[in-house]
Amino acid sequence: MTDPLHTELLELAQEAARRAGELLRDGRPADLAVAATKSSPIDVVTEMDIAAEKLITGLISEHRPDDGFLGEEGASSEGSSGIRWVIDPLDGTVNYLYGLPTWAVSIAAERDGETVVGVVEIPMRGETFHAVRGGGARGRGAWEGERVLSCRPAAPLEQALVSTGFNYVTEVRAHQADVAQRLIPLLRDIRRGGSAAVDLCDVAVGRLDGYYERGLHPWDLAAGDLIAREAGALTGGRPGERPARDLAVAATPGVFEPLQRLLEEFGAWHD
Question: Which of 44, 53, 95, 239 has the CA that lies 20 to 30 A from 72?
Fold first, then answer.
């Protein structure tokens, strides 16, 4: 039986993500990408990001005033209920700036430190994904109705399509490029989507065999990691560790361990 609290948290996260997604989609200036090299569009994106986070935290606080928050744009409060919301109001900022569709609103709810609900809204793809801990993952999109999510059947590593991301610090990017260069001959191919939340959902829905990245924050990971796990994927960081700033990995059961082992061997977790 579903925990009534988890149901409440899920419904609230879905509503907040939907409203924030509409705000970001409908409020984006049509000419934003044209002026992408100037300073003003960056300011517009920052304003949209902050506005989306305020919308999310405001809506949640109306219904659950005692909950805590951790958000990319500065929302931070302990709360007293044992529930903390981990929010990325706009994951994939550069994609948003340039008019690419791969950006998302990511909202997770933690109960006593464990993620119990995750919602990722991808407005430009018309998709929304969600999961409740122990209750599986589901999604809506171009297909009819709500679909139970399941990651791809296990494939050998050499047939795996894997996504990754790159840091904006030049030295870190250079090392990440070296790791990717060493991995490419051992995989089917590598993709770079630009949103951790979307990549994790693409693992969950079977569009990718795996995903890894260094330098992620809790708000990048929280919702997507739960969705991927509830869809049958394995997630972790360095061997024996949970996903963390050093390294986050998500993959089908057949790909996870060999991919994680190679990332450790290639030093993907350090500069």
Answer: 239
Q: CA-based Rg of the chain, rounded to a whole angstrom? A: 18
Which tokens go with 210? Answer: 């795996």
Q: Which residues pair with 83 in a beta bridge?
A: 111
Of 69, 72, 83, the residue nearest 113 (C-alpha):
83
Q: What is the DSSP code string of 148-188?
A: E--PPPP--GGG-EEEE---SSHHHHHHHHHHHHHHGGGSS
Q: Show the CA angle centred on residue 197, arms to residues 12 and 73, nearest 5°.
A: 70
Cβ neighbours of residue 168 closer than 8 Å, sequence gap 6 or more:
none
CB contact at 8 A, 29 and 35: no
**Contacts (Cβ under 8 Å, ≥6 apart) of 92:** 100, 102, 103, 104, 193, 194, 195, 197, 198
Q: In the beta sheet, which residues pair with residue 148? A: 138
Closest alpha carbon to 74 in 103, 97, 49: 49
Are 198 and 227 in contact by the 8 Å Cβ rule? The answer is no
- 208 contact partners, CB below 8 Å, separation of at least 6: 152, 161, 162, 163, 191, 199, 202
Residues 206-261 pLDDT 10s: 999 999 999 999 999 999 999 999 999 999 999 999 999 999 999 999 999 999 99
